[in-house]
């Protein structure tokens, strides 16, 4: 096999791995947004369309191996804060998503977002990368129900007497061995073998909710086809969303998506070595423009804002380095316009081990932080730990920025706070006052 053929094979496997790690959004996003009054099937169709078109744009235009899809967290803000909390009609909320995307486009065209990325101090970049890794690991443990809520200790480890947990442990150890032995396609092999082991669980144990989105069997082969629902396409209320009272909602969507996407690009670039000659995420302007387009199209298609996905790190860990990875992942979404019931074939516990291991792959950048230089180390530490502890990339990044500025000024190193970072701090304060 030629080197080009090997690289193409690696990129394809990486794209499939990324899709398997992100495909949960096809079902989870409609499950959340349907509580706002939007039809489940309509949101599912919008989710697939957005993920397909914008992942292709990320691969072909920005040439980065990063999947774009409706963001978790922003769908909850859409449903529970904007619609249920503030009483905004779902169509008006979709309009707010659209205008947030327009604001994004303006910031991208004016290179404001690029300037923000370039203003991020290097120690914070390293910390964000590792923090995102810990966040992905936590998501993996949570998806497997290995880490569970505990009223006494906040969180705890589940008992190892559940076949679901034992299957996850099997998958984690198996995938770890494959990765350590440098087996080609280790992550996909681990997902497939864990899925095969998980199938009997869904059929012979009563509650399989942790692995199959609530169905009692892993797959119902009598129901594999579902027609797409385009009822939400173009149903947003453009003008209704421009009321003065709704601008805080638009800003909340904009600033939350802003920091989510920036931190994802920075973190994934550091972990995968996807930087340009200046040390910034490569093709940054095009990537940010793609992210802005995703948010704008989200309102048109009928879903919450689209953003770059941190789970793209799974494909990068598999060896994905070019836009082909994103193209393959995006194309994997499209068949589920019609085959959404088949999503239950790959259970959450099968992809959870990959998410856990990605955290290990993303920890390397923290070795570059000078932990003896406390005015660098403390802000980096806050960013690192607050991302998983607050369950929010945005919060970790915001407090990393603000603490860096305060500490540097307080110790007489105000020259290490660039003009760009002062501007970022303004965005941070706005995000804290208008965000989720």
Please tell me about this protein's structure:
There is one protein chain. By secondary structure, the protein is mainly alpha-helical. The chain has one domain (3-434). 64% of the residues lie in helices and 3% in strands. It has helices at 3-22, 25-33, 40-62, 74-83, 90-109, 112-118, 122-143, 163-180, 186-204, 209-212, 247-272, 284-301, 312-317, 323-333, 348-361, 374-389, 393-410, 419-434; strands at 68-70, 147-150, 154-157, 306-308. Strands 1-4 form a two-stranded antiparallel ribbon. It has a two-stranded antiparallel sheet with strand order 2-3. The protein is globular, with a radius of gyration of 21 Å. Residues 204-222 have low confidence and may be disordered.
The secondary-structure class comes to mainly alpha
Beta-strand proportion: under 5%
Low-confidence stretches: 204-222
Estimate the mean pLDDT confidence.
83
Distance between the termini: 51 Å
Q: Considering DSSP H and I runs of 4 or more, what fraction of the residues is helical?
A: 55-70%
- Helix count? 18
In spatial order, strands of the major sheet run 1-4
What is Rg? 21 Å
Task: Give the total of domains.
Answer: 1
User: What kind of sheet is the major sheet?
Assistant: 2 strands, antiparallel
């Amino acid at each position: 096999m030629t080197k080009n053929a090997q690289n193409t094979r690696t990129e394809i496997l990486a794209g499939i791995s990324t899709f398997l790690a992100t495909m949960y959004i096809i079902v989870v996003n409609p499950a959340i947004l349907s509580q706002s009054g939007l039809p489940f099937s309509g949101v599912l169709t919008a989710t697939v369309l957005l993920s397909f078109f914008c992942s292709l744009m990320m691969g072909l235009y920005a040439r980065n191996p990063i999947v774009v899809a409706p963001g978790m967290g922003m769908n909850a803000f859409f449903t529970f804060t904007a619609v249920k909390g503030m009483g905004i009609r779902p169509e008006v909320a979709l309009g707010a998503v659209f205008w947030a995307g327009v604001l994004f486009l303006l910031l991208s065209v004016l290179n404001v977002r690029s300037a923000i990325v370039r203003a991020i101090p290097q120690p914070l970049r390293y910390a964000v990368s590792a923090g995102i890794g810990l966040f992905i690991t936590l998501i993996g443990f949570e998806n497997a129900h290995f880490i569970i809520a505990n009223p006494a200790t906040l969180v705890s480890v589940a008992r190892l007497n559940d076949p679901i947990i034992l299957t996850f442990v099997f998958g984690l150890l198996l995938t770890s061995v494959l990765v350590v032995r440098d087996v080609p396609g280790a992550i996909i092999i681990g997902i497939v073998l864990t899925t095969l082991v998980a199938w009997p669980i869904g059929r012979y144990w009563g509650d399989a909710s942790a692995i199959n989105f609530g169905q009692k069997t892993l797959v119902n082969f009598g129901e594999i086809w579902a027609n797409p629902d385009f009822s939400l396409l173009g149903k947003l209320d453009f003008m209704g969303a421009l009321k003065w009272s709704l601008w805080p909602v638009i800003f909340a969507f904009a600033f939350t998506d802003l920091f989510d996407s920036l931190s994802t690009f920075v973190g994934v670039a550091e972990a995968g070595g996807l930087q340009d000659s200046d040390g910034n995420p490569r093709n940054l302007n095009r990537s940010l423009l793609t992210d802005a387009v995703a948010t704008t199209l989200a309102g048109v298609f009928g879903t919450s804002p689209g953003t770059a996905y941190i789970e793209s790190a799974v494909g990068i860990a598999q060896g994905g380095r070019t836009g082909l990875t994103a193209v393959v992942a995006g194309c994997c979404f499209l068949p589920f316009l019609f085959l959404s019931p088949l999503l239950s074939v790959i259970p959450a516990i099968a992809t959870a081990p990959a998410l856990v291991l990605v955290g290990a792959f993303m920890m390397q950048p923290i070795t570059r932080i000078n932990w003896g230089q406390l005015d660098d180390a403390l802000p980096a530490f806050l960013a690192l730990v607050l991302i998983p502890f607050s369950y929010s990339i945005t919060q970790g990044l915001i407090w990393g920025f603000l603490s860096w500025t305060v500490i540097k000024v307080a110790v007489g190193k105000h020259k290490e706070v660039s003009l760009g970072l002062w501007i970022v701090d303004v965005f941070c304060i706005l995000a804290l006052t208008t965000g989720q």
